[in-house]
Amino acid sequence: MNNMRIKPHPHRPLHVGSTGSRVQKVEERLESLGYLKGAADDRFDAGTAKAVVDYKRDHGWTGKPQGVVGERMARSLKNITATQASPTNGNGGKNKTPSTLKGATYNVERDRKPKEVREWLGDFAKRQKLDFVQVQEINDYHKALENIPGYHLVTFPKSKDGGESGILVKDDLLAKNATYIQGEGGGWTTVRGGHAPPRAAPAVQLAGWLKVVSVHQPPSVDWKNGKPVGPENRVKTYASLSEKLLAFAKQQLKRNPDQALLIGGDWNEPASTQGKWSPGWIAQQAGMNTHGGVKTHGNGRIDWEMSKGCRVSNIKAGPTGGSDHNIVTFTVSRPKGKR
């Protein structure tokens, strides 16, 4: 008889029924963060599964998180700081969340090698100490972006555009309430003769006080005399997402007056554009401030932010990193009176 003992694979998922030292370490981490209600006992039971689900909901997992610990969950638990506990763990709201975040927006551009995208953006985010990055044109890069050490991707592959945009979030940053704003309008025919579906704009709450939205509006729509002009389907699609973004912004600001809102990305229009459905119109109607002006995509000035309830500063156009857009970095600060 072969009595050789098989060692558990280090990356094999943990689930209800799992036992051993890996389970013990996971439970100890969840307990220290306030998610596990009970002692760590090296047995993965229903209580452990619930703690895993609660953790995932607070840290950017979308859809219906499962009570299973895989590679992403293990990496997140390893990187998160001890002060970033659950806001519902009964500690009287004493969790520390940063009042200043460093962000960026970046249109990655299609038809690049996923490995190069992962390596360049991962290195840049680490060197610049970015807390989050609004990313666009990422349909082919979901797996690559998910594998950037220290970060996880919030996107929605089941949206009509298949997760064309997303938000790359640092693992140790509290992230919750992920959702998306779905535009309509039918989509449009691309220059290659294909069909581009209506765009969706992912949104997630970060650090307990900032709602971040990543946007990518259709190209080839301009404004003349305050009215949008361009191919009919592109105009309809642009207008639909603008209407949805405005409704989302008004709802967020009304329901959560103490929460800041940041909407940004590749608008394919500068902040100075005026007229119904333009980005400037959204900002004006929602009472938000615009932060455009830096040169990106040549001299386009089309990658920028609008905000309410926070201060956006240190806006800089960085390198392209192989894209046809510059990455734009900035700092977002919470007003002192709301800290």
From TrEMBL:
Q: Which residues form the Endonuclease/exonuclease/phosphatase domain?
A: 104-325
Q: Which organism is it from?
A: Melittangium boletus DSM 14713
Task: Name the Gene Ontology molecular function terms of this record.
Answer: catalytic activity
State the name under which the record lists this protein: Uncharacterized protein
SUPFAM superfamilies, per database record = DNase I-like, PGBD-like
Alphabetical list of Pfam families matching this protein: Exo_endo_phos (PF03372), PG_binding_1 (PF01471)
- Regions of compositional bias (Basic residues) in chain numbering: 1-14
User: Which taxonomic lineage is given here?
Assistant: Bacteria, Pseudomonadati, Myxococcota, Myxococcia, Myxococcales
Q: Where is this region: Disordered?
A: 1-23, 81-104
Mark out the compositionally biased spans (Polar residues). Answer: 81-102
Q: Which residues form the Peptidoglycan binding-like domain?
A: 19-73
